[in-house]
């Protein structure tokens, strides 16, 4: 493995589409964590975006792209419908 | 399931393309809700983006990506045409 | 159907690529309409973005993603060339 | 056809990848034209974005998405290599 | 060919993923050049974005989309691994 | 090879999804490095975006697109589950 970060992504496969949504949100957050590793700074920054609609919308855009990848990986959970 | 949030996405399959649009808008909104879980704050924030064209356009971008995923999941509703 | 909105998307299939472009623009506009349902407000807002190049470019981005979905749905209109 | 606009997109198929680039740029411009149909206003606006690097980059983003669609439509011009 | 511009894209096929990255960066730059053809202006503008992190990130976004297209065209260079 | 830059991308194939995430972050950073090759300037600029939530979110967007490409290249690591 490239460096000793915690492996937070053993697989892209989830049991349900909803768990796929939760994984997409997790991946978006982990990207922010990888770019700004200081949890204290991230906590301070939360107030800055959590009530800034432009940043909430931009965050939803990241989730949408991550979810598309996860949905493709799970064949859109079709086999499990 | 990861946490006790309401499972708002049992399936990506919808009866029609229009229901796919409505699901895409729902998913975009649910992402915002997951990032800013306080419904009161979200309600206050609505005025900030609902008449800000740049944010309306950015929201439409999120819907477009979510819809692409849903359309792929439904094979573009081709079998039902 | 989820709610009593007008079903503006009976199908993603169009006769020509050009009609696919027009549908993409329509879908982008319908997203804005779903997020800001007040037609009067939307009309007032039009001046704000229609001569703002950054917002015109952002709108073109939405159209490009919607068009990609429509083009995929129509198999890039290859069978009709 | 939906309205009497000029059909500027008879096909997504181009002879070469370079013509695909040119078509992508054309489609991005046509989207702007569809949203702001007044050519006079568009001409005035050109100065606003043509030396604004953020808007030039955003325009390149639109071209990249349009080009991806065109490249998929042409099977990445692989058969013609 | 549409106009007498230099054909800078004879093919999307590259020998390696790294050359695919270089081509993606080249395509992003060529889009800027097509929208702002004046090399002198582009040179002056370079300082504006080359130390503006928001614009560097937006440029990386364009490269990511262009690279995705190139990677798809080369079947992710799998056959050459 | 186009120029004498270090070949930082011998392959898109990674052993695990997590290594795919790390590669996506690396590719996003390499794009910034290719556009702003001066490491000193990049180091100075780090403070500007590392605590700017809008830019952290925009960076996460780049990672999401790069990761989608890498996940497609690795067939979503399905065979290795």
UniProtKB/TrEMBL annotation, chains A, B, C, D, E, F:
Source taxon at top rank: Bacteria
InterPro entries per record: Hexamer_Tyr-coord_heme_pr_HTHP (IPR021111), HTHP_sf (IPR038125)
Protein name per its UniProtKB record: Hexameric tyrosine-coordinated heme protein
Lineage of the organism: Bacteria, Pseudomonadati, Bacteroidota, Cytophagia, Cytophagales
């Amino acid at each position: 493995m490239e460096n000793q970060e915690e492996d937070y992504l053993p697989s892209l496969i989830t049991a349900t589409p909803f768990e796929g949504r939760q994984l997409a949100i997790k991946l978006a957050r982990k990207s922010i964590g990888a770019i700004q590793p200081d949890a204290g700074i991230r906590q301070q920054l939360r107030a800055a975006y959590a009530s800034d609609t432009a940043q909430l919308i931009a965050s939803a855009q990241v989730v949408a792209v991550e979810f598309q990848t996860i949905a493709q990986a799970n064949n859109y959970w079709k086999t499990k419908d």
